[in-house]
Amino acid sequence: MWISLSGSRLRALLLCLFAPVAAQAETPASSVWGLGFTAGQERQPYRDFEQKAQALPLLLFENRWLRVAGPTLDLKLSSSAEHSAGLRLRLADEGHEPQDSPYLAGMAERKPSIWLGAGGAWRSGGFSVTGELLADASNKSQGVRASLGLERPFQAGGRFEITPRLVVHHLDRKYVDYYYGVRTNEALATRPAYAGQSALNVETALRIGYAVSPRQRLSLDLGTTRLGSGISRSPLVEGSRQDSARVAFLHIF
Fold this sequence. Notes:
It is built from 3 helices and 13 strands.
């Protein structure tokens, strides 16, 4: 399962791993391949949810027009050292099944979605501002989500890079209602019906990158997300915070 909810932590981790080779891919004739793995855990906010660690392979491919990074595919419309913008397709393994928690028993499965939209980044003075706007192309939730992030890397010695990150995620009413709502026919005395409302989640994180060699990168990403009230008020949710820890390794060919 890829990191759920917003996917932002995995994307940030991938950006950290791929940043050293991004400049190479701006050359029209060049292409870059990378393979690696990612492992870690993100605490799901659902009540009594069976929390599991996850390990997955990572794939990178990038050339002048295309970037494939994990579950995300970008078609570049504009790319330079200062900015990038393009169309974005992402596979997101979100949602829940009745067997994931006793509290979810009797509910219909909430299925993963394919998200389509646009994303971009702007870099200046060492800071990076990222943004995206995505809609559910698989028609599961029929929702829309958007994010706006800010980060700044700091060099620590010759091989370490430390990057604090702040990201705000907006999830519209349809998204929240699908993944965190309770339909009338699913309601119980202990699980009242709930119509989800839009939510604004705030993520803070710290990423530590280490250059094992010029072609090998290791990264640790630690983060926490404060869930918006539209999610935290759901009877399916326990608490208002979602924590994560993930490590990744990438070899560039």
